[in-house]
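Researcher: I'd like a candidate sequence for this fold, 464 residues long. If you have to choose between options at a position, lean toward the conservative one.
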């Protein structure tokens, strides 16, 4: 994070900036609806206490004068909200600090957006490899409020011996960008931030009350040295965070993108979809394959993405296939946490779930071919291997799964299959239902044939 340290956090720290570049009237203003502490010296930066997991409103306000930045009139802008360390000392080790937090809190995020409460935010995105940031688009001409939730508390980054009041301060920073000619939101417009401390639920209220009581005991002369407490916190202008929107999307140091546009998930809810066991699409997209020891770093990154381990692409950014396969189950549990560690170990060892039902299916040869062979061989078909069966493995035990996997096994367009029937007594056709599938005997064998549908569009499959 040497880049972070090279940049001024506050504009007043950078005396080298030319006067004409300093904007006295910022284009935007961000106001967080949380009271500032009354125990802050007069010329110090404000400090705001937040409760862990509580939703706090940040109002996104258009502060432009007439004629300012006319190119964004009628257009959306993009803002990235981050929770970052305030202390320069911790900025050096931010990556290690956040990785340690992630191992202790698997599956959690440092920062979330409370989407149901937020107003005017569009195209909300979160990156699984950046747990401390959220981004969204918004219209400056409309009422916009982003409700944030901070899940890390200040004492999680201090030695155990310290009490709650000794927790480290964080910063809430908002960076806003406009769209460039190529359609990317990378042209920086404005940045602002404020200092916060995060306590366990209701801890912020108790701390605010304690500070207020301390101030009431001070003399009038002493009170003059402290700022009054304000009901809201106005974020002050600062330099943009070194990460650009491009690196927010792709922060892997390897040639393989950790979060390419193809995998960049757009969420209408927090990113629970990425951990869903059913988040694999249809049967055609599940062929992620085994990871081979000869896999390159780029191929290993792609394998992690295909198998829903995008959260760990940055962590394993320099691992080849051989490196990853050498890790033991205990190593992976320690690195990724119990849930994802076991899942990654099973994926590396190709431990697939045993299917609930297996059936064998063969497409019946055309009658003309059968007659030809019977004539040639006097009914003996031993010279030709006609009946070749395919194994169909069922997990859902549903008729729709049978149809889908038949289409996949025999290269039949799924949309052309109207119905699947089973031939019953006296040649009747019985519709294959979920209940019928659930009563199939394991390792049953079927021949199937196709007949054209009555309306001439598509066909039916008959299992015999």
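Model: Candidate sequence:
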């Amino acid at each position: 994070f040497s880049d972070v340290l090279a940049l001024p956090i506050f504009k007043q720290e950078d005396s080298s900036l030319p006067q004409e570049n300093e904007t006295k009237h910022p284009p935007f203003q961000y106001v967080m609806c949380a009271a500032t502490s009354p125990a802050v010296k007069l010329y110090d930066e404000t400090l705001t206490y937040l409760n862990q997991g509580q939703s706090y409103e940040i109002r996104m306000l258009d502060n432009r004068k007439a004629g300012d930045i006319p190119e964004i009139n009628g257009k959306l802008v993009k803002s990235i909200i981050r929770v970052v360390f305030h202390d320069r000392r911790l900025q050096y080790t931010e990556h290690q600090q956040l990785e340690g937090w992630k191992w202790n809190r698997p599956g959690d995020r440092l920062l979330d957006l409370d989407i149901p409460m937020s107003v005017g935010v569009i195209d909300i995105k979160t990156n699984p490899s950046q747990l401390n940031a959220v981004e969204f688009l918004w219209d400056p001409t409309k009422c916009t409020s982003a409700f944030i939730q901070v899940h890390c508390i200040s004492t999680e980054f201090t030695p155990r011996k310290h009490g709650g009041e000794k927790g480290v301060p964080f910063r809430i920073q908002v960076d806003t960008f406009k769209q460039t000619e190529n359609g990317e939101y990378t042209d920086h417009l404005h940045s602002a931030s404020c200092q916060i401390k995060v306590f366990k639920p209701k801890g912020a209220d108790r701390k605010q009350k304690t500070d207020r009581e301390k101030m009431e005991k001070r003399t009038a002369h002493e009170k003059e040295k402290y700022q009054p407490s304000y009901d809201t916190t106005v974020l002050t202008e600062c330099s943009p965070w070194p990460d650009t929107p491009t690196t927010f999307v792709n922060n892997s140091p390897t040639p393989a993108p950790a979060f390419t546009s193809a995998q960049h998930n757009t969420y209408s809810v927090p990113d629970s979809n990425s951990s869903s066991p059913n988040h694999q699409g249809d049967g055609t997209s599940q062929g992620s394959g085994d990871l081979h020891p000869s896999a390159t770093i780029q191929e290993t990154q792609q394998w992690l993405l295909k198998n829903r381990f995008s959260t760990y692409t940055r962590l394993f950014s320099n691992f080849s296939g051989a490196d990853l396969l050498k890790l033991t189950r205990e190593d992976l549990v320690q690195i990724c946490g119990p849930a994802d560690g076991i899942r990654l170990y099973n994926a590396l060892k190709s431990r697939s779930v045993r299917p609930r039902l297996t059936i064998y299916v063969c497409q019946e040869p055309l009658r003309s071919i059968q007659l030809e062979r019977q004539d040639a061989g006097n009914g003996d078909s031993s010279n030709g291997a006609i009946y070749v069966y395919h194994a169909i493995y069922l997990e859902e035990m549903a008729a729709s799964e049978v149809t889908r996997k038949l289409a996949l096994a025999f290269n039949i367009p799924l949309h052309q299959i109207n119905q699947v029937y089973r031939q019953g007594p006296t040649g009747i056709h019985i519709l294959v239902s979920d209940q019928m599938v659930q009563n199939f005997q394991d390792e049953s064998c079927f021949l199937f044939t196709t007949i054209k549908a009555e309306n001439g569009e598509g066909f039916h499959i008959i299992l015999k």
